[in-house]
Amino acid sequence: MEPIRLAVNGRTDIGQVREENEDSIRWHSDSSHPFAYVIVADGMGGYSGGAMASQIAADTLQQHLNELLGDTFLSCSPQQQQLMLRAALIEAIGNANQRIVETKNTRPQFSQMGTTLVAAVVWQEFLVVAHIGDSRAYLWNAYGLQRLTRDHSVVQEMIDSGQLTPEQAQQSQIRNHITRALGVTEDAEPVINSWKLTEDALLLLCSDGLTEYLDDHCIERVLATHRPALESVYRFIDDANQLGGRDNISAGIMEFSNRPEAVARAVDDAITLKPKKDDVTVRKS
User: Residue ranges of the PPM-type phosphatase domain (predicted)?
Assistant: First the structure.
């Protein structure tokens, strides 16, 4: 088997309208092991509150993931490592949720804050994606684009029930109403799914400041044609800003290759997500 190569890049931008960037993004690729991650959080809750919530989430996940590759982890079997990686994500998200809730309880001026979160982690050929809210993860390969997350939003529920088409949802006045977020309830409800990467892959993580303007077809076209692939994050940001930039915009990309000479492609795994019943509705500012 050829050695696995991972490369990452990211960018966040305030956009054309907002006075503050409430998005946070982190990315990392280990220099000694086939390990990389991208984290995107989109905060909400008024002046400074959203920025604080997203920063808490991103920093907490980054800390947990940076501590993962210890002697115990590296000495375990691949199956054990996969379980440890999922467990680390679950623990990190729970801790981030707790920290946000505690901050809200001690600082009343931030009582409305919360954040979406999407994180993609690759160890060897194992990919784990965790998300809550409407920040998204995509995977692109020679077969096309696959969305790895399903939005926790009112319009997504309406699409699922047949009340809206995806095209109608894109224009809906309630498209920014989400049904799950970190910091809203005592218990976080992230969705965590995993896949095995069998071919070269591009992974894109982004906030809804990007997907408000670029649909899946536009995203696929950029990922398929923009080279170097890692620099597509700048193209995504520029495109969203040129189309209006009403929200903060964040994009992170990970390039996975197990063939050093290849341009990154992606896996063609079947993806099935089972949405859970949501009981909280939050309007992002």
Answer: 7-256
Spatial distance between the Cα atoms of 228 and 273, rounded to a whole number of angstroms? 31
Which of the four CATH numbers 1.20.120.140, 3.90.640.10, 3.60.40.10, 1.10.287.4070 does domain 5-283 have? Answer: 3.60.40.10
In this structure, the number of other CB atoms found within 10 A of the CB of residue 166 comes to 11
Report how far apart, in Å, the C-alpha atoms of 173 and of each of 154, 169, 283 are.
11, 8, 11
Q: What is the DSSP track for 145-200?
A: EEE-----BHHHHHHHTTSS-HHHHHH-TTTTEES--BTSSSS---EEEEEE--S-
Quote the radius of gyration of the chain (alpha carbons, Å).
18
Backbone angles phi, psi at 242, to 5 degrees: -65, -25
Amino acid at 104: K
Residue 160 to residues 167, 219, 275, Cα–Cα distance (Å): 13, 22, 9
pLDDT in tens, the chain (285 residues): 568 999 999 999 999 999 999 999 999 999 999 999 999 999 998 767 999 999 999 999 999 999 999 999 999 999 999 999 999 999 999 999 999 999 999 998 898 999 999 999 999 999 999 999 999 999 998 889 999 999 998 888 887 888 877 767 776 767 678 999 999 999 999 999 999 999 999 999 999 999 999 999 999 999 999 999 999 999 999 999 999 999 999 999 999 998 755 433 333 332 323 333 333 434 454
How far, CA to CA in Å, does 61 sit from each of 120, 186, 240? Answer: 11, 18, 27
Alpha helices, H only, the chain: 49-66, 71-75, 78-106, 154-160, 166-171, 208-211, 216-225, 232-242
**DSSP designation for 264:** P
Burial class of 14 by CB neighbour count within 10 A (0 to 12, 13 to 18, 19+)? middle
